[in-house]
Please model this.
Amino acid sequence: MAGKEPGTADVLRRVRELLDEYDPVSTPRLEFLRARFDAGLAWVHFPPGLGGLGAPRALQSVVDAELAAAGAPDNEPRRIGIGLGMAAPTILQYGTDAQRKRFLRPLWLGEKVWCQLFSEPGAGSDLAGLGTRAVRDGDDWVVTGQKVWTSNAHNARWAILIARTDPDVPKHRGITYFVCDMTDPGVEVRPLRQITGEAEFNEVFLTDVRIPDTLRLGEVGDGWRVAQTTLMNERVAIGGSELPREGGMIARAATTWRERPELRTPELHDRLLRLWVDAEATRLTTQRVRQQLAVGAPGPEGSGMKLAFARLNQAISGLELELLGEEGLRYGDWTNTRPDTVDFYGRDAGYRYLRAKGNSIEGGTSEILRNIIAERVLGLPSEPRTDKDAAWKDLPR
Amino acid sequence: MAGKEPGTADVLRRVRELLDEYDPVSTPRLEFLRARFDAGLAWVHFPPGLGGLGAPRALQSVVDAELAAAGAPDNEPRRIGIGLGMAAPTILQYGTDAQRKRFLRPLWLGEKVWCQLFSEPGAGSDLAGLGTRAVRDGDDWVVTGQKVWTSNAHNARWAILIARTDPDVPKHRGITYFVCDMTDPGVEVRPLRQITGEAEFNEVFLTDVRIPDTLRLGEVGDGWRVAQTTLMNERVAIGGSELPREGGMIARAATTWRERPELRTPELHDRLLRLWVDAEATRLTTQRVRQQLAVGAPGPEGSGMKLAFARLNQAISGLELELLGEEGLRYGDWTNTRPDTVDFYGRDAGYRYLRAKGNSIEGGTSEILRNIIAERVLGLPSEPRTDKDAAWKDLPR
Amino acid sequence: MSSAGLDLLYSDVEDDLRSAVRDLLADRCPASAVLARCDSDTPYDLDLWRTLRLQLGLAGLLVPEKLGGQGASAREVGVVLEELGGAVAPVPFLGSAVLATSALLGCDTGDGRVATLLGRLASGESTATLAVPLSTAPGSAFPQGVRADARGELSGRVSSVADATAADLLLVPGIGPDGPGLYEVAADAPGVRISAATPLDLTRPIADIELAAVPAARLVVGPTATAALDRALLTGAGLLASEQVGVAQWCLDETVNYLGQRRQFGRVVGSFQALKHRLADVWLEVVSARAAARAAADALAKGDPDTAVLVAVAQAYCAPAAVRAAEECVQLHGGIGMTWEHPAHLYLKRAKSSEIALGTPGRHRAALAALVDLPAAV
Amino acid sequence: MSSAGLDLLYSDVEDDLRSAVRDLLADRCPASAVLARCDSDTPYDLDLWRTLRLQLGLAGLLVPEKLGGQGASAREVGVVLEELGGAVAPVPFLGSAVLATSALLGCDTGDGRVATLLGRLASGESTATLAVPLSTAPGSAFPQGVRADARGELSGRVSSVADATAADLLLVPGIGPDGPGLYEVAADAPGVRISAATPLDLTRPIADIELAAVPAARLVVGPTATAALDRALLTGAGLLASEQVGVAQWCLDETVNYLGQRRQFGRVVGSFQALKHRLADVWLEVVSARAAARAAADALAKGDPDTAVLVAVAQAYCAPAAVRAAEECVQLHGGIGMTWEHPAHLYLKRAKSSEIALGTPGRHRAALAALVDLPAAV
Model:
């Protein structure tokens, strides 16, 4: 294998070897996952020794399909999505060897849950304006500030964190990226109740949290660049999931339409068909993006998918409530619970309608995504900026 | 009447006196119109002696209705709309007594047609950036530059014109407003063919046109402020016409729907109904604006009407083509003609579709109108501006 | 057809009424109080409702003076609803002072029992509701879910009724041996069971009503009953448009305020052109919605023959306008608009729920098709 | 149903084909030339069409090699249409190389006459069109306007036929004594009258065809004729989506270019956020339209059982996407976009006309309803 990127045959051989050695059904779950990781079949595009084989990323779906078909346990990817989707690629790209060795395996196994401490009440779309301060103190950094919209903070052992280490330089240049121990006594997690009634997210208050410098990711002052890796992966994760036809939000509306003829009206029919067409066109676009990635020619289309899915989810769930009529006046349950994962489809239409409102805010608002498309894809000039060169501390707030 | 604003009774008495003295049917048209002007019944809110009575503006519709009912001739307002709607209120507000006396009567009678020389190829939305130069030479100004989108330039005797008299001050402060004689040998009018195939507008090339200083309207350098009066009246004229229910662009679509059952489909039905509702809501809004004006409490709603009509006209005419199906593939006539007035409803659906595209551009683009609503009505802050304080000659172009 | 005779403005009296209601709501019904109540066992603010009824006399606006009411009209009710909508005030005004009252006014008001009930509602002594699902559109078939037996006892079920848990009096459409009728039922009569449902709109409770051989008094029967019910639904739909205007206006104002203060990228967020243009579009819809709602209220007040058209236009226009304004409010507030602690979600839930209430926009457009001779495809 | 087997990318061969067509069009078909031709008596660029046919062999892309064609597929035709759309090139490619050719391919290609005709089209010797109104949707009833008598002579009228004035050969659906048939008619046969109509789309001429006892050869009859016509319409509709992508992409690119240069208020206009956001939305639609059009082309190429669904999706999505891109192009160009001298209007007219061609989006959505089991309300 040395010197040459492994291909489909190599990867499939590895899968067979793993399955031969560890019976996927009878082997204890964690033992099987450890063996899978060590066989380089966790994320095949990662380097050997870190759960991968240095193979093309597209082969991962082949591995996943084979193992699923054999009845093997998975690492509950929905439960540990932030670790897998955001922390891992960032640690891989910017971490030291020691950091990679320490964090990646337990992360992938799901033994340690990760969360993300980026957004702040005063720094949402303008994330680079963040005010959480990290001050050097010997071998440690002392961190104080407030973060918000943190999923899974209450379950997390580790967090990826960005904080301001130099307020005297322009805002993008004074940020540093850390791994934060969520068990530090200075970390306080409070549930943040949202529009749906439940508390899927948290506010996190950091008070004199001590982070050893060995948990810094990337250079001091280089945190904004490091965070771009995280954010890019976040948007890909949100917008890029593979769907079958009529998958996603359109499924429930279509099913209701088929099963409840008494609810149908001509105007709802055409609106449903429009959304069905939009959903299918968006699905085909996602499929085309994946095909581009698979042949190593990524197009700019990926940036649009999160935008498209947000719009679709909102329009479809809005229609669904109108279609349901009287039932749309009712809601399942306003109880303030703390779900670990979001399940759009298992709940009622009112929940879907409300939760989908977040799709155009979380992980980059649709407005920010349109800016990005206009500037980075279409090459239109950015707007006059007054905040790029001034020291962070001098910016109006 | 002295000391007190005339009311409905006064105005109606005047109308009766006019009709008693001049038989509306047998009196030669121009003679009747002159008598009407001199009776103060041309525009009742103008001052006495200038065609008015100093009466409330709302009473004009009472006069018009009475005279129309009596079979009196009108001054063909559509043919001389620019004079009536834009030049006249500006001359009234900013003209000297001599200018008012000289221009208003022939303008209202339709003896002299007016046009408007404002827009330039490089100064559309940013009208204040205009580059046509006017240089003082003794008692005259010598004007050179290019104007565009001038309706009726080929029929006009007079024009209202804005030109740059001082390039060394910020752009809004170096503009002066003139009345321009369209028979000056330096004025060249060229038809400008448009998307519909016809040339409704013109380009006007000005080469060393001499304008006596007595034809200046307002102070030197105050032309931007004077022009605001013109533009405000233009937008009111465009957006504010009174319509019966199902008047305007929706009429033809609704008629086609009723008369051609074979064209109907369920999806077009709901779309037509949506637009019918939008048209009716917009009509009611216009009516509400008129009622506010009539009681002397103008609301900000007027600013939105041009925006609303542009959107409606475009959506309805687009639907009409889809409804017509095969017929929508055909066009009436691409011959390059020079119409004096625009008649949306007398022509084919393709013409309506194409001509309506101009509704969101002419007289202030919909984008500029949204800026105005956001800033002047909603009070949102303007964007960072770099062009307001620099001398015009130093601006990038 | 031209509606040229409509008065689309607010009179001085109406402006005064608005001020009185607005001042009261500002004082007694701030967003924080409404929010706190959503998590409580007392979703209605009954103290506020008492003040509105007894002190301001608003429950009797539609009731003629000779029956103990204010002798006002749908115009004034529209103004009150704009303010109640702007505060998402949790009071049973729509159910009692609009729907139930209009239904009674459609009965024979010379009938002693009807007059007495109207008097009780007008005086504020009673709170009523009309026992139909809140989603019922004007022009719907007479409800078949409740039957009256020969003795006039009612049995059946009506779901998703607005304001039922606040009512002591239920007006129940039921089918009896003589055909459709409207029945008076005491909310605490034996055999009545009113169970609160979980509403999408936290500030307008709904409930399911079960009736098991409940003693009831028939107020009206036959075509008059059908007409009375339809009149109530038409009045409710037309005036709900005013409430939607109030909701939309609050959403617009709140968003403009927030964007005028919030800073990102070293700028006030409200200076970003894309957001300004969207708010300009919302503003235009709110302005147009106000004209449409005013037209419906004035037509209802005058008994204009054009009323059905103007009500359908108002609902078809105002319901989506309110939803859009609320959706933009949530979106343009960013994360804070997604939190429970910010009141934006209350308005979103009200707007979306009201879009379904008393007929969806699509239902009203379909009604319009028949009214203005734009027939469906065959 | 999952279309997982679709190839939505462009192959290297397709990229080369695109380059060849694009280079030729850049050289021979600039906007100025297309505009000048609109005012002339020769709306088609027959020199260009000759080059495309004879030099590049594009007329025979769909024709199997053994019949003298290129043996390519709908995928390659889609690429050519993207480029022709991007140049609004006035050539009868859609009528001849797509519609007429597909109709012939739906006949028995073992039949000598059919094979000969396909050979003539593939070699570029002949130009044909399918004599149906351009607005005809796949799945429409077989046209009834032309009748064949017992001797096989055709009489009747077909209006708004695309590319008829450029054709020497007409494929005419007609009803004969044995039922529906497809007939071969020479454009210059006695009794044929082809009158140019005034098209909304200046770059795709249409004409009315009148037939008075015209001698014709029947190519196919009965259900096969119906199927051949429908196959042609389905292929045309699916591939028109690619043309629409070309139109939309040009409109987007041109607008981005213009806004990147035009200055107002001392700024490049393309830096205004409201315009940037609108262009981002147009971009997203164009990107999605491309995926939908690619899917339809690949399904047509493979004879995928899912083809009808993917064609309906492509038309329902791409047609309005092209209209929107063209409308935004005109609007964001401001005044200059309204002038005859700027080519934007050619694209607007093509986009709007194509929205009607081969079935409106609404028609395609209605077709989809049956295909994916989302039945209409009853």
